[in-house]
Amino acid sequence: MLAVEVEHLSKNYPVAVKDPGLAGVLKHFFRRTYRDVKAVRDISFTIASGEIVGFLGPNGAGKTTALKMLSGLIYPTSGRVHVAGFVPYRRERKFLRKMSLVMGQKQQLLWDLPAIDSLRINAAVYELTDAEFRQRVGEFTELLNLEGKLSQPVRKLSLGERMKAELLAALLHHPQVLFLDEPTLGLDVNAQEAVRGFLRAYNQRYRATILLTSHYMADVTALCPRAILIAKGNIFFDGSLDGLQAQFAPYREVKVELVQPLPEEKLSAFGELQSVDGREVRFCVLREDLTAMTARLLGQLDLLDLTVTDPPIEATIGRLFRQSNQSSAESAADTVR
Ligand SMILES: Nc1ncnc2c1ncn2[C@@H]1O[C@H](COP(=O)(O)OP(=O)(O)OP(=O)(O)O)[C@@H](O)[C@H]1O
Prior knowledge:
The protein is α/β, with parallel strands linked by helices. It contains twelve helices and 14 strands. The relative contact order is 0.13. Residues 13, 15, 37, 39, 57, 59-65 line the site of adenosine-5'-triphosphate. Adenosine-5'-triphosphate is lined by residues 13, 15, 37, 39, 57, 59-65.
């Protein structure tokens, strides 16, 4: 069953354009001109129930705009979107009970009140019984390691504790679909790991669907078998992280440790040399040449060790984003009307 269906979805933000100087101010006052910022351009994808998908892109790519359309905060300019069988911007009560949007930079907990008081408000909004409220708060407090923290005013919590309490508040009504915008933003490594562990547990326990944006690749590699990559409003990859490596990083690194150092001329006959450091030598090898190359190395050289590794996924994605920025800089993005 599909939890999210997006078809040819676009969002343009009209932005007023003002010329410099007094003439510009007067013109702006009497006759405004606008240009469209094309934040999301004709994107399509589906997410099955229970999937966790990473939504990745450089700053300004359109991730938050897309999440806002999926959660019904803003209207699309064109295209269709269904989440849990509902059209998000209609904001039906049944839909709001089925989903949650958590934004790393925004908070719903009241700053001066203990988190438990804000949770009680949420429980009333979602019409939870006392028993449900106690059971869910107890379960999530344990999973998030928040014992003793919910009775303190939110302003006295650490950033990591506050984010965990925000997640607790967002999930109290057991949403089936969860949109997370930078849920680990600014957290230290331990708190990031705790949030990831919690999201994994929630996904497994309740078969919840999660779409998350993050600039931390560790979030994605730890949680998301699948990633959607977006830049300048366009999706340019949608598939498994392994597929991404295969499609965009067709090379692997072969590292060998020689019994005796050998001259570079002799080594380069085996393939593209990346580095030679005494007896440690690294080659960059096309995936399709890997078997033949390792067989030749093992057959013709005296080796102590041989390892084959993928380039790190961070490096692949970082390179893709840089490429997409360069290509988009060459094409004019906005229109004036
Ligand atoms: N309310 C708005 N009015 C005008 N332009 C906007 C508005 N909100 C976003 N934009 C523009 O739309 C584009 C996409 O922004 P969006 O916030 O969706 O990107 P993002 O991928 O979430 O970026 P980041 O990773 O920096 O949060 C950007 O060029 C941004 O400046």
